Each structure stands twice: as structure tokens, then as C-alpha cells.
Amino acid sequence: MRFTLALLLLPMAAAAEWSNPLVRQRADPWILRHSDGYYYFTATVPEYDRIELRRARTLEELPGVTPTVIWRRHANGEMGAHIWAPELHWIDGRWFVYFAAGAAEREWDIRLYVLECAAPDPRTGPWVERGQLRTPWNTFALDATTFTVHGERYLLWAQRDPALAANTCLFLSRMKSPTELTGPTVRLSQPEFPWERVRFAVNEGPAVLVRHGRIWVSYSAAGTGPEYCLGLLSADASANLLDPRSWRKSPTPVFTSSAANQVFGPGHNCFTTTPDGRTDLIVYHARDQAEVAGDPLDDPNRHTRVQPLGWNTDGSPAFGTPAAAADTA
Q1: What would the pLDDT profile of 77-117 be if each residue is shown by its tens digit?
Q2: DSSP string, 116-172
Q3: Closest CA to 100 of 87, 112, 116, 88
Q4: Which is nearest to 179 in space by CA: 80, 96, 90?
Q5: What is the pLDDT of residue 173?
Q6: Which residues does 8 contact at the CB level (< 8 Å), separation at least 6?
Q7: Which among 77, 175, 232, 255 could bridge 250 via Cys, Cβ 3.0 to 4.6 Å?
Q8: pLDDT tier at 1 (50, 70, 90 boundaries)?
Q9: CATH assignment at residue 138
């Protein structure tokens, strides 16, 4: 489906258009609209072997941009397999990429890692490996994101809690620096509802949006087939975010597969805006088929999609339904 945001939604700006899927065979998408006016795009590549960046002035230009490879997996040892879910962040005048990786010899020993770049243009590098981002447990961990509220920087990620019978839960901690946690770590969410436990018991892929005096955290739940969907947490922006009692959790998913629109397994999203910042957008991946042969993780056809995010009268986000795909005109 081609989206056209008309001038009445974009005053003083040209209408924006893009087609879905926006970028094919790119999962776990991350789009950052930086202060330089560019959109920066990265995602998991089907080969799970590298981190790419694209830069464009508009969303509709991103599919035609040749990706720049900024880092490749190691041939041996840690950071040697399953390079997943990179996120690009601008922190204190430097670029950081948070990503997950396994070891070349133990591909499921997945942990969090960080890259750093001091160049104004992150495509030019050089990128320095800052090593593993240590969390309280040395267990399966992935999907780190970072955000600030009232001057405090936090890290939010997914990890297996050794005390629970679940694949991954969501955890939150303050950050001492872009590469180090400080203070207590708290569990914000665990897979407790039936829709979070289809095929696998998973909470992962958190994404943060601060609007209307609240912090909204979308996250992905269940396995990576058509059951994959988004849940939602929220807290008052003035609350103690490290107190789990500050957070509310939706008992039902907020974004699910649409058989009518032939979009299946929508998840691992992020948020961005139109160029004027007035319209929020949800960026996510999904498939065009309900079922795939074998392990869904071996199928490359999770495509990046973008659509407007609405808002309900009570100030909560209205995710709507995954929009149908159409070829680029």
C-alpha cells in the first residue's frame, strides 16, 4: 500500500510517500531521524553476518540506497554468529550501535555488544568494538535499546532470567555510560499471557516512545511465525521507572497479523516521525505468508514496513492493522 500524507497533515512540508514493504528482507528494523535531517536505517540482514547502514533524506529514498557495511562478524570466538537487531544511537556527540551476537563456535550463546564511532557521518567510521555490554546474568540476551527521561539514561533489553521458565523477559537498568550499566536491574515484563507463549515464551524487541506525559514501550511476543505480535507497557514519565509497580501492561496484543491484508507476524518495531516531526510512524517487520517451511528464523522474507501511528483520545497509541503490501509505483 502506498501511503500519502497529505499537506493538511504536513503543513509547510511536501507530502511524503512510501510503499510497503519499504525494504525487503530486512528484519528487526531501526530507523533514526537524526538532527542532520537524514534518516538512518539499519536492520538484521538475512545472512546474519554484518551490520549495514543506509542514509537518505526521505523514507521513500531508503530502498534505493546502497548499504554501507560498517562491521562484519568475527571468524572465530565471540561476535562470530547470529548478528541480530542492530540499533544506531547518537549519544553525547558520538555514534553507538547496540546489537546481539553469538560466538562462532557456539552460535546460541547470544549476548549484547556495542560499537562506537566518533565521525559525524557514521557510514565513514572507523567503528571501534567496545565489547560486551555486561548485564547481571551471563545468559541469552538481545534487543537492547536506550532512551533518556529527565536526564537519566536507561537501557532496556530482553534476556533469559535463570529463575523463570521463559525464553526471554524484559529488563531495565540505568546506564553509567553508553557501554556500562549502574544500579539495580528490574524485570518489567515476562511472558505470562497465552498470546505471549505461542511456540516460545518470549518478550523481546522493546521500543520506546515518550508522548503525552507517559512512556510507552512496545515489545514483541511469542515465536517468530504468524503468532509474532506486539504487546504494550506504559508508565507515567514522572514515576520511578525502576519500580515495576509503575508500569501497566496491556492484557491483549496491540498489533497482530492481518490475514485480510496478507501481513503476518508483525513485530520488532521502532518508532520515527515524518520530516516535520508532527506524525509518528511505526516501523516493523512482517512476512507476506502465514507459514514458512522449517524454522522461521531460516526464512529471509521478513520485510521492513512503515505506517502512521495513531493516537486514541486517552493519549494512548493506536497501532491499527498492518497495512497491505503493494508494489512501488
Answers
A1: 999 999 999 999 999 999 999 999 999 999 999 999 999 99
A2: EE-SSSTTT---EEEEE---SS-S-EEEEEEEEETTEEEEEEEE--TTSSSSBEEEE
A3: 112
A4: 96
A5: 98
A6: none
A7: 232
A8: low
A9: 2.115.10.20
Residue 222 in domain = yes
Tell the residue number behind the cell numbers 536526564, with chain if given. 151
d(CA 268, CA 43): 10
d(CA 299, CA 146): 29
Residue in the structure block whose three cell numbers are 515476562: 190
**Count of domains in the chain?**
1
Report the Cα–Cα distance between both ends of the chain, in Å, rounded.
Answer: 10
Q: Which residue among 87, 204, 227, 299 is the active-site one?
A: 204
Integer CA distances (angstroms), 12 to 6, 7, 43, 209, 277, in order:
11, 8, 31, 25, 12
Under 8 Å between Cβ of 67 and 54: yes
Q: Which of 28, 87, 143, 299 is catalytic?
A: 28
Residue 273 has pLDDT above 90, yes or no: yes
pLDDT at site 2: 53
Helix or strand or coil: residue 59?
helix
Q: What pLDDT was estimated at residue 5?
A: 45
> Would residue 28 show up in a list of annotated catalytic residues for this protein?
yes
Mean pLDDT over residues 19-42, rounded?
97
Residue 200 lies in a domain: yes
Give pLDDT tens digits for 278-289.
999 999 999 999
Give the residue numbers spanning the domain of 140. Answer: 2-318
Q: Is 4 helix (H, G, I), strand (E, B) or coil?
A: strand
Q: Does the annotation mark 204 as catalytic?
A: yes
